[in-house]
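User: Predict the structure for this protein chain, please.
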Amino acid sequence: MTQLLWAVCGALLLGGVAVFVVFTRGSDDAGRPRPRRTSRLPRAVQERRRLQAVVAFVVAVLGWLLSGYVVTLLIVPLLVFGLPWFLRATMTQNQGIDRLEALAEWTQRLSDVLLLGLGVEQALVSSLRTAPAAIEPDVSELVGRIQSRMSPEEALRLFGDRLGDATADKVLATLLLRISDRGPGLARALSDTADSVREEVRQRRVIEADRAKHRATIRWLVLVMVGASGVIALNPSYAAPYGTPLGQVVLAVVVLALVAVVAWMASMATHRPVPRFLEADRRSRVRTTAQEEET
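Assistant: Here is the predicted structure, written as structure tokens:
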């Protein structure tokens, strides 16, 4: 049984080192070409992960040495990394809906401007003055690209990449398909698209309100479980059965099972975005890279 305990201890220690390396360096694969915008994590995220890794390592080792529980090397990193992620995942997610609502308003205003006889480029530039606050930085970047002589098609595609939503792609597809249309047809199409986006925003708000109830329930359940586990850990009479090698193994299995259940519950309450249809097809780029590697 002692050999089993040391084997579990070594596995947990190696797992902790692996977690430390992954969360301090990010999820990039060395030597593999990536798009520039996803090659590195934001600096704030890197700093937060480094801090979490240091705290998890120090607290886990101290907890192991002071309590004698090897399973502390597993529990502490799960709490340090998993609890903040869980709290973020179960928070109300209205930012994307607010941006879509602003996009619908911007689209309707753009339709009204086009009815005055302006071209698409002029209408896009003039839309910055009345752009809703939620997407004003995005529209400002779009207008800046158009004013710098970038083609409207490419500027609109980059605008779609910045918004990153399948519903927003509907608006951009309407503009891309009829960008040379100076008649009332594009204005009517944009007005209809704006109505469609507003209806989708209404439906998303109803769904999000229903999901918020489940997220709150899951969040409070996990917080109560963490608090109760802390009270039990501070009571030697309750924690005594887990002090044996077999008790350590059982406790590790129970913790992993609880983590799996909580992650599953959190995933059920999380919105999975619909895949976009205006994304660039990178398959040709992958083939080129593979051919270069073979040569």
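Residues 28 and 38 are 9 Å apart (CA to CA).
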